Structure formats: C-alpha cells, structure tokens
Amino acid sequence: MNLRFARVLMCLLLILPAARAFGVQPPAEPDHRLDWWREARFGMFIHWGLYAIPAGEWDGKKVPGVGEWIMHNGHIPRDDYATLVPQFNPVKFNADEWARIAKDAGMKYLVITTKHHDGFCMFDSKFTEYDVMATPFKRDIMREISDACRKYDLKTGWYHSIWDWHHPDASGPTFDEYAKVLEKQVDELLANYGPIDIMWFDGEWIPEWTEERGRDLYEHIRKVAPAVIINNRVGKGRGGMAGLHDPSQNVGDFGTPEQEIPGQGIPGYDWETCMTMNDTWGFRKDDHNWKSARTLVRNLIDTASKGGNFLLNVGPTAEGLIPSESVDRLHEVGQWLSVNGESIYGTSAGPFKRLEWGRCTSRGDRLYLHVFDWPSDHRLVVPGLLNDVISATIVGDSSGAPLHTSRRNESVLIDLPARPINDIATVIALNIVGQSRVVAIPLRQSDDGSIALRAVDANVIGFTARYESGGGKDNIGFWTDPNDVVTWQFEVTRPGRFRVVMSESCPADTADTLVAVRIGNTELTTRVSPTQGWTDFTNLELGEVTIPVVGTCDVRVEARGKPALAVMNLRSITLQPIDSR
Ligand code: H79
C-alpha cells in the first residue's frame, strides 16, 4: 500500500460517520411488502379522464397549464365541466393494448387515475353518479385495466385524488362527510378488482386533509388489504415537489418526487420519481415537447442509480389511444431494456457519489457501469473502487469478450473499445470480489493551484440540507435547519495564500443569515446576500486564507443565526491562489 493510498483510507474513516447523516432516517426494519416494488424499478403512470376531451382548450381558447387541471385553470363551473360526461365515448380504448405497450416497454407495474382532482370517477362507484357508468361508454374502465394487468403480469396501482373539485362536501365544514365517501370509494377500489398492489394518493395538500386523517386512511387500507403499498401523499409529510418525507414523523411507504430526480439517493428509504414524457399528465393536443427516448432511458438509469423507481406517464386521448409519440418512445425504451434490463431490475443504488461519465447500479458483487459519455482515450476510470476485479464485460456484447482492467492507486481502469455499442447508454458489468468498497477520492488543487469545492462533492450533516440538481440547480438546498453543517476535505499540494469566493443564492425575504466558513484554522464570516431567486447565484468575496502546509485541509460551513426560511442555496466555494509557494 503506497502512502497516498493509506491517506485515502484514513480520510474515509473520518468521512464515514458524516456520510451517514441523511435528511431522512431509514425505517427500523426493511418492509418485505415492498420487495417486488423495489425490484420492479419501472412503471407506467396513466392520466386519463374527462379532461382528455377538451385536451387543453375550452370554448376555442387555450387554457394554460397541465391538461388535467383545465377545470381549475380555466375557472370552468362544475356544471359546465359536467357537460363532458355525455361526450365521453373512447371507442378505441383497449386495456389489453395499453398493458401490452407497458409490458413491451419493460414496465413492471401500472398506476392509473381512478379519480383525478376533477372528481370524476373512472370506475363504477355506488357512492356517486359522477362516474364512467353515466357516460355513453358505460364500461368500468378499471375492471378492464385490472384484468389486462393480470393477464400481462403487471402489478396494478390506483391513483386516487384526495382533493375533489366536484363533490360538494370536499371543502369547508362538511369535509367529514366527504372523507367518509372517500374511504368507501377506496374500499370499492380495493374490493372489486381482485388484488390491488399500490394505492397512489395525491392532492393531499388541501388544508382540510390532516396527517391524522392520512394515518387513519393508511391504517384502514393496511387492515382491509395488508399487502397494498401506499405512497406518502396519503399523509402530509412530503416536502413539496421534492416529494420526500421523514418516515419517523409521517405516514407512507415511499417518497414521491414529482418531475424531478433527487440529487442523491437515501440509503434505506424507498422513493419513486413520477415524470411526464412531454409537459402534461392528461392529454393536451398542443403539447409536442417530447423528451427523447435517450433522455427517458437515462432518467430511468439515473433514478435506479440512486435507489429509486421511475413512474413514467402517458396521457391517452379522448378516443382511448396512447399518443403515438409516447408509444414510439416506450418501444425504444423497451428495446434498450430488453438488452440491458439486468442492469436495472432488482438492482440497488451504486456506491459512488458521482461519476464524471455516467451512472452505476449494483447487485451483490456486481456493478453495472452505465456509460453516457464515452471517454475519448477509451479508458474508463472507476474512482475509489478498492475491490479486486474478477472480470468486466459489455452487457449485450454478443462476443462476450472480457475488457482489460488494471488498477491505478485507489481507482480501477477499464480499457474500452473505440466506440460505445449503444447510443443511449452502454453498460459494463463489473464483477468484483465481495461487496463494493469505495473511498471518496480527495479533492485536489488544479494545475493553476485553485481549489473548487462543489456542492455535489460536499458532505452534509443534518436533517434538512441536501444536494439538489437540475432546473438551474446544482447546489446544497433545503437548508432550513441552521444546525445543519456542510463540509469538504481536500488535499493541499501547493500551500499558500488564497482568495475565497462563495457562490450562493437566496431570495431577499430570507437572506441575511450570518454564515461562518472555516478553512483549516481560519474562520471567515459573511452575511448571505439576497439574489433574484433560488436559482440566481452570486459570488461573495469572503476574504483571504493562508494554508501553510501540504496535507489534508478541512472546510466547514455553518450558519450563525436563524434564517427566516432557509440559510441559502450553496453552489460552491473556490480558493484562488494569490501567491502559492
Ligand atoms: O396528477 C399530476 C398532477 O395533476 C398533480 N400531481 C401529478 C402526479 C399535481 N397537482 N398539483 N401539482 C401537481 C403541482 C402542485 C403543486 C402545489 Fe404544492 C400544490 C404547490 C402548492 C400546492 C406540492 C404541495 C408542492 C407544494 C405543496
């Protein structure tokens, strides 16, 4: 073992306790009820209801927003919206075909809207006249869906909205009456369609719905259908669109990030990102902003690499057809999975915090390396992997030829062919000895002597702050608890004097918290400056610091006061050499 290697190991021992501190505490015991769900990794979300008829347009005018919200966004009175009921006649609907499309895409389960916020029930309910049996179509769609799922061996999930724009008791003082109907309809959904696998609630943020009501409903469902998996929107715990909850405080079996993939996974915590293929859930005729098949597959990989599930939405038309743009993309996703499925199904999060070239999933003593960006020197660096390597092969390579591997200090190197065999992501199966052991490669000074401490490389100690990325974000966010601490460690090879700059964002109504940045033995303080919003970053000059010796240097950022809302979004801290020796 060379000296540097030994230092890396020591570094790991110091970092590990901090790395275990996550915002959400894992449950005491893993729940085997969720075993199939964890293996499945990929499901189909279906948003289908009366809103497919107007498809984004009312009285010849476009109504902005997602298709299924047209009643709300278009301020359409209840009775006007109800004129859609006699128009609902999706003659081309074929549940068998939808299930086949999901199956062909490599999806393992399906979650469909039994009732969205508009309150219209797509199933035959004894407790309302406002259901599919009142339409000319007069077929229990959920019966046909659940039969088709069983035929194609897909697990069945019911989306059911708590918020209800139609039921007269669903807001205000008579909410108790509505809550009784809600429970009875949930009972119908669980009793009348054979075994149901998932209850997926939504619209829980209305003030009438409380954590207590959520817990009661959760426990009721577990009693009448013990195997059902229930999302966290049954209660009040999810933190906005990020969708995660603290299982020690709030009810629910899994977190529900919406339209986003968390920056990092949370060991022992189950979650599922739901996402649209264009910009709407319910069909809109004018939405052509489709994600490519490549983006969709990479989102699935990204999600799996962090230990989550991916629930990908389709919004069928009023005729009952899944849009051809969706069908085409799902077919491509399925083709990729038919070759590379072993790198997704039944895998766990990869052991790396970040990989320059792609993502990683793991299963036992095998790592799946998903290469998005093919290295120009055809040499893949697997950073910090300490295990001995048994073999490396490309998944789906008919020759099965092993790739040459070698070790450079704490990293494994894999010699790749000149070109990827798959444009979406080429997967390398890496068989290693035992469970993976990975050390964080220490951050080092660049050639010009500067040091960049990026949010993605930070260790966050605490329960609220966490790394977030995407949508203009690449920072530590959600930093609402001033006791949370952000740290880095880096290797100094060229000591000297440095100028320190912090990149942060913070809206004016919460900016001004005093923040201390400790670098080695020097502490610099600053007040957080207001910016135009959470994604508008500014560079704050913190002052100068002298790092006198070669070796490991610790950086620690903490708040020195209580913010109105959050301390700041912290993107990076950089050290620029002034006169390095
Ligand atoms: O069914 C699809 C959408 O119609 C529905 N959820 C997906 C799966 C949806 N409803 N609302 N939204 C999506 C966005 C709403 C966000 C907000 Fe909120 C509701 C902002 C304030 C209340 C969520 C809860 C974010 C903060 C609290």
Keywords:
6-stranded mixed sheet, alpha+beta, 10 helices, 581 residues, 7-stranded parallel sheet
Strand content: 25-35%
Mean of the pLDDT scores?
93
Bound molecules: ligand H79
The termini sit apart by 29 Å
Low-confidence stretches: 1-25
Number of helices: 10
Number of strands: 29
Per-chain topology:
Elements: H1 3-19, H2 35-40, E1 42-46, E2 57-58, E3 61-62, H3 70-73, H4 78-81, H5 95-104, E4 109-115, H6 141-151, E5 155-161, H7 175-191, E6 198-202, H8 211-224, E7 229-230, E8 272-275, H9 293-305, E9 309-314, H10 324-340, E10 348-349, E11 358-363, E12 366-371, E13 379-382, E14 389-394, E15 405-408, E16 411-415, E17 426-432, E18 443-444, E19 451-454, E20 459-461, E21 466-470, E22 473-477, E23 485-492, E24 496-505, E25 514-519, E26 522-527, E27 538-547, E28 551-559, E29 569-577
Parallel strand pairs: 1-4, 1-9, 4-5, 5-6, 6-7, 8-9, 18-23
Antiparallel strand pairs: 2-3, 10-11, 11-12, 12-17, 13-16, 14-17, 15-16, 19-29, 20-23, 21-22, 23-28, 24-27, 24-29, 25-26, 25-28
Helix pairs in contact: 5-6, 5-10, 9-10
The structure holds ligand H79.
